[in-house]
Amino acid sequence: MKQVVHVRAFPRLHVTLIDLGGATHRRYGGAGFSLDGPWTDVEAMPSRQNTLELPFAVDERDRRDVQDMISRLSRQLRRCFAVAVRKTPPLHIGLGTKTALLLATARSCMEVVGREPDRDQLQRVSRRGAASGVGINAFFTGGLVVDLGHPTSRSRTWLPSGASVPKSPPPVGVRSSVPEHWVFHLFLLAGKRYHAGEEVEMFRRNTPVPRHEVTAVLAEVYHGLVPAVICDNLPLLKTVLRTINRRGFKRAEVTGQPRGVRAAMSLLDRDTEAAVGMSSMGPLVYAITDSRSESVQRLLNRRGKALRSVYIGCYPARNTGHEVLRVAVK
Predict the structure, then answer these.
(1) Is-cis flag, bond preceding 208, omega within 30?
(2) 215 Cβ partners below 8 Å, 6+ apart?
Protein backbone atom coordinates (compact mmCIF):
# COMPACT_ATOMS: atom_id res chain seq x y z
CA MET A 1 0.00 0.00 0.00
CA LYS A 2 1.21 3.49 -0.86
CA GLN A 3 0.21 6.54 1.11
CA VAL A 4 -1.09 9.53 -0.82
CA VAL A 5 -0.98 12.80 1.08
CA HIS A 6 -3.39 15.51 0.00
CA VAL A 7 -2.73 19.09 1.14
CA ARG A 8 -5.13 21.97 0.58
CA ALA A 9 -3.68 25.49 0.78
CA PHE A 10 -5.72 28.67 0.77
CA PRO A 11 -5.15 32.00 -1.00
CA ARG A 12 -4.25 35.26 0.58
CA LEU A 13 -4.98 38.87 -0.28
CA HIS A 14 -1.99 41.14 0.21
CA VAL A 15 -3.09 44.57 1.43
CA THR A 16 0.27 46.34 1.53
CA LEU A 17 3.99 46.14 2.15
CA ILE A 18 5.13 48.41 4.96
CA ASP A 19 8.78 49.57 5.01
CA LEU A 20 10.56 49.66 1.66
CA GLY A 21 12.52 52.74 2.58
CA GLY A 22 14.60 51.92 5.67
CA ALA A 23 12.53 54.27 7.83
CA THR A 24 12.17 51.84 10.77
CA HIS A 25 14.16 49.15 12.56
CA ARG A 26 12.78 46.46 10.22
CA ARG A 27 12.83 46.01 6.46
CA TYR A 28 9.69 45.07 4.51
CA GLY A 29 6.78 43.72 6.59
CA GLY A 30 3.29 43.26 5.21
CA ALA A 31 -0.41 42.86 5.95
CA GLY A 32 -3.03 40.62 4.40
CA PHE A 33 -6.01 38.30 4.71
CA SER A 34 -6.40 34.55 4.21
CA LEU A 35 -9.47 33.50 2.18
CA ASP A 36 -11.47 30.27 2.15
CA GLY A 37 -11.10 29.95 -1.63
CA PRO A 38 -10.23 29.49 -4.41
CA TRP A 39 -7.81 26.94 -3.00
CA THR A 40 -4.81 24.92 -4.17
CA ASP A 41 -4.87 21.09 -3.95
CA VAL A 42 -1.64 19.09 -4.11
CA GLU A 43 -1.11 15.33 -3.77
CA ALA A 44 2.20 13.54 -3.18
CA MET A 45 3.15 9.89 -2.90
CA PRO A 46 6.37 7.84 -2.84
CA SER A 47 7.88 7.13 -6.24
CA ARG A 48 10.99 5.65 -7.88
CA GLN A 49 11.75 9.03 -9.43
CA ASN A 50 10.62 12.59 -8.98
CA THR A 51 7.68 13.58 -11.17
CA LEU A 52 5.45 16.64 -11.32
CA GLU A 53 1.98 16.71 -12.85
CA LEU A 54 0.49 20.11 -13.57
CA PRO A 55 -2.92 19.95 -15.28
CA PHE A 56 -2.59 23.43 -16.77
CA ALA A 57 -0.13 25.58 -18.64
CA VAL A 58 2.27 27.50 -16.40
CA ASP A 59 5.27 29.67 -17.02
CA GLU A 60 8.42 27.58 -17.49
CA ARG A 61 10.11 29.39 -14.61
CA ASP A 62 7.23 28.55 -12.26
CA ARG A 63 7.36 24.90 -13.26
CA ARG A 64 11.12 24.86 -12.75
CA ASP A 65 10.81 26.46 -9.29
CA VAL A 66 8.45 23.70 -8.14
CA GLN A 67 10.60 20.98 -9.69
CA ASP A 68 13.75 22.40 -8.09
CA MET A 69 12.09 22.45 -4.68
CA ILE A 70 11.01 18.81 -5.06
CA SER A 71 14.61 17.94 -5.98
CA ARG A 72 15.94 19.72 -2.87
CA LEU A 73 13.48 17.83 -0.70
CA SER A 74 14.37 14.56 -2.40
CA ARG A 75 18.06 15.04 -1.59
CA GLN A 76 17.35 16.04 2.01
CA LEU A 77 14.88 13.22 2.70
CA ARG A 78 16.55 10.63 0.45
CA ARG A 79 13.23 9.78 -1.13
CA CYS A 80 11.58 10.45 -4.48
CA PHE A 81 8.07 11.81 -4.91
CA ALA A 82 5.29 11.82 -7.47
CA VAL A 83 3.56 15.19 -7.07
CA ALA A 84 0.26 16.06 -8.73
CA VAL A 85 -1.31 19.50 -8.57
CA ARG A 86 -5.03 18.82 -8.78
CA LYS A 87 -6.35 22.35 -8.55
CA THR A 88 -5.04 25.87 -8.21
CA PRO A 89 -6.12 29.41 -9.11
CA PRO A 90 -4.06 31.34 -11.68
CA LEU A 91 -0.55 32.44 -10.77
CA HIS A 92 0.65 36.05 -10.61
CA ILE A 93 -2.72 37.73 -10.22
CA GLY A 94 -2.53 38.66 -6.52
CA LEU A 95 -3.78 35.56 -4.68
CA GLY A 96 -0.37 34.32 -3.50
CA THR A 97 -0.79 31.16 -5.59
CA LYS A 98 2.94 30.59 -6.14
CA THR A 99 3.61 30.61 -2.40
CA ALA A 100 0.59 28.39 -1.69
CA LEU A 101 1.69 25.95 -4.40
CA LEU A 102 5.27 25.69 -3.13
CA LEU A 103 4.24 25.35 0.53
CA ALA A 104 1.52 22.77 -0.20
CA THR A 105 3.96 20.73 -2.30
CA ALA A 106 6.64 20.81 0.38
CA ARG A 107 4.14 19.96 3.13
CA SER A 108 2.73 17.00 1.21
CA CYS A 109 6.17 15.55 0.42
CA MET A 110 7.35 15.88 4.02
CA GLU A 111 4.15 14.28 5.27
CA VAL A 112 4.74 11.28 2.98
CA VAL A 113 7.89 10.45 4.98
CA GLY A 114 6.21 11.15 8.32
CA ARG A 115 7.57 14.61 9.03
CA GLU A 116 5.49 17.55 10.22
CA PRO A 117 7.55 20.63 9.33
CA ASP A 118 7.44 23.93 11.17
CA ARG A 119 7.45 27.35 9.53
CA ASP A 120 11.25 27.63 9.53
CA GLN A 121 11.64 24.31 7.71
CA LEU A 122 8.99 25.12 5.13
CA GLN A 123 10.41 28.59 4.56
CA ARG A 124 13.90 27.22 3.98
CA VAL A 125 12.81 24.63 1.46
CA SER A 126 10.27 26.89 -0.30
CA ARG A 127 12.57 29.96 -0.22
CA ARG A 128 9.54 32.24 0.18
CA GLY A 129 8.98 35.17 2.54
CA ALA A 130 11.90 37.41 1.59
CA ALA A 131 9.69 40.50 1.45
CA SER A 132 6.27 39.89 2.99
CA GLY A 133 5.67 37.06 5.44
CA VAL A 134 1.89 37.14 5.01
CA GLY A 135 1.69 34.13 2.70
CA ILE A 136 3.95 31.77 4.61
CA ASN A 137 2.45 32.67 7.99
CA ALA A 138 -1.18 32.59 6.80
CA PHE A 139 -0.49 29.09 5.44
CA PHE A 140 -0.31 27.99 9.08
CA THR A 141 -2.77 30.33 10.83
CA GLY A 142 -5.22 31.92 8.40
CA GLY A 143 -6.92 35.16 9.42
CA LEU A 144 -5.49 38.66 9.27
CA VAL A 145 -1.69 38.55 9.41
CA VAL A 146 0.64 41.51 9.90
CA ASP A 147 4.28 40.44 9.83
CA LEU A 148 7.31 42.29 11.18
CA GLY A 149 9.58 41.97 8.19
CA HIS A 150 13.32 41.34 8.45
CA PRO A 151 16.19 42.89 10.39
CA THR A 152 17.80 45.94 8.82
CA SER A 153 20.83 45.39 6.63
CA ARG A 154 23.39 47.46 4.76
CA SER A 155 21.86 46.53 1.44
CA ARG A 156 20.14 49.37 -0.36
CA THR A 157 18.43 46.96 -2.73
CA TRP A 158 14.76 46.08 -2.31
CA LEU A 159 13.54 42.87 -3.93
CA PRO A 160 10.26 40.88 -4.16
CA SER A 161 9.86 37.61 -2.26
CA GLY A 162 10.73 35.42 -5.23
CA ALA A 163 14.00 37.20 -6.00
CA SER A 164 15.99 36.45 -2.85
CA VAL A 165 16.21 33.81 -0.12
CA PRO A 166 15.63 34.92 3.50
CA LYS A 167 17.34 33.29 6.48
CA SER A 168 14.04 32.82 8.34
CA PRO A 169 10.34 33.65 7.89
CA PRO A 170 9.25 37.10 9.08
CA PRO A 171 7.78 36.91 12.60
CA VAL A 172 4.11 37.71 13.11
CA GLY A 173 3.28 40.99 14.85
CA VAL A 174 -0.51 40.69 14.69
CA ARG A 175 -2.71 37.71 13.94
CA SER A 176 -6.46 38.10 14.30
CA SER A 177 -9.54 36.21 13.18
CA VAL A 178 -11.59 38.07 10.59
CA PRO A 179 -15.34 38.50 11.20
CA GLU A 180 -17.14 35.47 9.79
CA HIS A 181 -19.88 37.56 8.17
CA TRP A 182 -17.42 39.54 6.05
CA VAL A 183 -17.38 38.50 2.40
CA PHE A 184 -14.55 39.10 -0.07
CA HIS A 185 -15.67 39.68 -3.67
CA LEU A 186 -12.86 38.96 -6.16
CA PHE A 187 -12.54 40.63 -9.56
CA LEU A 188 -9.85 39.69 -12.07
CA LEU A 189 -9.25 42.72 -14.24
CA ALA A 190 -7.57 42.88 -17.64
CA GLY A 191 -4.41 44.31 -16.15
CA LYS A 192 -0.70 43.60 -15.97
CA ARG A 193 0.61 40.44 -14.28
CA TYR A 194 4.01 41.06 -12.71
CA HIS A 195 6.47 38.26 -12.05
CA ALA A 196 10.16 37.37 -12.29
CA GLY A 197 12.19 40.23 -13.81
CA GLU A 198 9.17 42.51 -14.11
CA GLU A 199 8.68 42.38 -10.34
CA VAL A 200 12.34 43.14 -9.74
CA GLU A 201 12.18 46.11 -12.09
CA MET A 202 9.01 47.35 -10.36
CA PHE A 203 10.84 47.33 -7.02
CA ARG A 204 13.92 49.00 -8.52
CA ARG A 205 11.91 51.88 -9.98
CA ASN A 206 9.83 52.58 -6.86
CA THR A 207 12.21 52.17 -3.92
CA PRO A 208 13.30 53.45 -1.55
CA VAL A 209 9.94 54.75 -0.37
CA PRO A 210 10.20 58.14 1.43
CA ARG A 211 10.25 57.98 5.23
CA HIS A 212 7.03 59.96 5.68
CA GLU A 213 5.20 57.56 3.35
CA VAL A 214 6.47 54.53 5.29
CA THR A 215 5.38 55.92 8.64
CA ALA A 216 1.97 56.89 7.23
CA VAL A 217 1.38 53.32 6.01
CA LEU A 218 2.61 51.94 9.33
CA ALA A 219 0.03 54.08 11.15
CA GLU A 220 -2.78 53.01 8.81
CA VAL A 221 -1.94 49.33 9.32
CA TYR A 222 -1.59 49.29 13.10
CA HIS A 223 -4.12 51.97 14.08
CA GLY A 224 -6.50 51.49 11.17
CA LEU A 225 -6.51 48.08 9.51
CA VAL A 226 -5.94 46.06 12.70
CA PRO A 227 -8.64 47.75 14.84
CA ALA A 228 -11.06 47.69 11.90
CA VAL A 229 -10.79 43.89 11.83
CA ILE A 230 -10.71 43.32 15.58
CA CYS A 231 -13.64 45.73 16.20
CA ASP A 232 -15.65 44.53 13.18
CA ASN A 233 -15.72 48.02 11.70
CA LEU A 234 -16.18 47.88 7.91
CA PRO A 235 -16.66 51.65 7.45
CA LEU A 236 -13.26 52.19 9.10
CA LEU A 237 -11.74 49.50 6.88
CA LYS A 238 -13.13 51.25 3.80
CA THR A 239 -11.46 54.50 4.85
CA VAL A 240 -8.18 52.79 5.69
CA LEU A 241 -7.93 50.89 2.39
CA ARG A 242 -8.74 54.04 0.43
CA THR A 243 -5.80 55.74 2.16
CA ILE A 244 -3.40 52.79 1.83
CA ASN A 245 -4.12 52.56 -1.91
CA ARG A 246 -2.69 56.07 -2.26
CA ARG A 247 0.37 55.71 -0.04
CA GLY A 248 3.80 54.11 -0.06
CA PHE A 249 4.63 51.17 -2.27
CA LYS A 250 0.94 50.30 -2.68
CA ARG A 251 0.45 53.53 -4.60
CA ALA A 252 3.16 52.39 -7.02
CA GLU A 253 1.47 48.99 -7.37
CA VAL A 254 -1.90 50.57 -8.15
CA THR A 255 -0.52 53.14 -10.60
CA GLY A 256 1.49 50.36 -12.26
CA GLN A 257 -1.77 48.87 -13.47
CA PRO A 258 -3.60 50.18 -16.56
CA ARG A 259 -6.33 52.77 -16.32
CA GLY A 260 -9.13 50.18 -16.41
CA VAL A 261 -8.02 48.59 -13.14
CA ARG A 262 -7.89 51.92 -11.35
CA ALA A 263 -11.28 52.88 -12.80
CA ALA A 264 -12.84 49.63 -11.54
CA MET A 265 -11.45 50.25 -8.06
CA SER A 266 -12.89 53.77 -8.05
CA LEU A 267 -16.26 52.53 -9.28
CA LEU A 268 -16.52 49.87 -6.57
CA ASP A 269 -15.37 52.30 -3.88
CA ARG A 270 -17.72 55.09 -4.97
CA ASP A 271 -20.88 53.14 -5.76
CA THR A 272 -20.91 50.52 -2.97
CA GLU A 273 -20.33 50.35 0.75
CA ALA A 274 -17.47 47.90 0.16
CA ALA A 275 -13.91 48.33 1.39
CA VAL A 276 -11.89 48.11 -1.84
CA GLY A 277 -8.28 47.23 -2.52
CA MET A 278 -5.92 45.62 -4.99
CA SER A 279 -4.05 42.53 -3.85
CA SER A 280 -0.27 42.69 -4.15
CA MET A 281 0.72 44.05 -7.59
CA GLY A 282 -2.65 43.06 -9.04
CA PRO A 283 -4.51 42.90 -11.26
CA LEU A 284 -6.89 41.19 -8.78
CA VAL A 285 -9.22 43.70 -7.08
CA TYR A 286 -11.22 42.83 -3.97
CA ALA A 287 -14.30 44.36 -2.36
CA ILE A 288 -15.07 43.47 1.27
CA THR A 289 -18.70 43.63 2.36
CA ASP A 290 -20.93 42.62 5.23
CA SER A 291 -22.43 39.31 4.09
CA ARG A 292 -23.50 39.08 0.44
CA SER A 293 -23.85 42.74 -0.31
CA GLU A 294 -26.87 43.70 -2.40
CA SER A 295 -25.12 46.88 -3.53
CA VAL A 296 -22.19 44.93 -4.99
CA GLN A 297 -24.57 42.51 -6.71
CA ARG A 298 -26.60 45.39 -8.15
CA LEU A 299 -23.42 47.04 -9.39
CA LEU A 300 -22.33 43.79 -11.05
CA ASN A 301 -25.67 43.50 -12.79
CA ARG A 302 -25.80 47.16 -13.80
CA ARG A 303 -22.16 47.89 -14.61
CA GLY A 304 -20.67 44.48 -15.31
CA LYS A 305 -19.44 45.41 -18.77
CA ALA A 306 -17.99 48.67 -17.50
CA LEU A 307 -15.86 46.78 -14.97
CA ARG A 308 -14.38 44.67 -17.79
CA SER A 309 -13.53 41.98 -15.29
CA VAL A 310 -14.03 38.32 -14.52
CA TYR A 311 -15.98 37.93 -11.29
CA ILE A 312 -14.16 35.06 -9.59
CA GLY A 313 -16.71 34.90 -6.80
CA CYS A 314 -17.17 35.79 -3.15
CA TYR A 315 -15.52 33.98 -0.25
CA PRO A 316 -15.41 34.34 3.53
CA ALA A 317 -12.10 34.75 5.31
CA ARG A 318 -10.19 31.64 6.28
CA ASN A 319 -9.42 31.79 9.99
CA THR A 320 -7.44 28.54 10.16
CA GLY A 321 -4.48 27.29 8.17
CA HIS A 322 -3.98 24.63 5.52
CA GLU A 323 -5.52 21.15 5.64
CA VAL A 324 -3.79 17.75 5.41
CA LEU A 325 -5.62 14.60 4.33
CA ARG A 326 -4.22 11.07 4.02
CA VAL A 327 -5.60 8.38 1.70
CA ALA A 328 -4.16 4.83 1.44
CA VAL A 329 -4.19 3.38 -2.07
CA LYS A 330 -2.74 0.29 -3.72
Answers:
(1) yes
(2) 23, 24
For the stretch 76-126, pLDDT in tens is 999 999 999 999 999 999 999 999 999 999 999 999 998 888 888 888 999
> Among the listed ranges 163-172, 183-192, 238-247, which one has the minimum average pLDDT value?
163-172
For the stretch 22-61, pLDDT in tens is 999 999 999 999 999 999 999 999 999 999 998 776 788 8
Point out which residues pair with 314 in neighbouring strands. Answer: 185
Contact 149, 27 (CB under 8 A): yes
Alpha carbon 234 to its chain centroid, in Å, reads 21
* Measured distance CA(87)–CA(84) in Å, rounded: 9
Q: Is the predicted pLDDT of residue 305 greater than 80, yes or no?
A: no
Cβ atoms of 5 and 323 within 8 Å: the answer is no
Question: In angstroms, rounded to a whole number, what is the distance separating the alpha carbons of residues 328 and 83?
Answer: 15
Sign of CA dihedral 28, 32, 37, 43: positive
- Per-residue pLDDT band for 254 (boundaries 50, 70, 90) equals very high
Candidates 327, 279, 250; CA nearest to 99 is 279
Identity of residue 239:
T
Could you tell me which residues come within 8 angstroms of residue 166 by beta carbon, excluding any fewer than 6 positions away?
123, 127, 129, 130, 150
Q: How far is CA 16 from CA 13, 56, 248, 320, in A?
A: 9, 29, 9, 21
CA dist 94 and 132 (Å) reads: 13
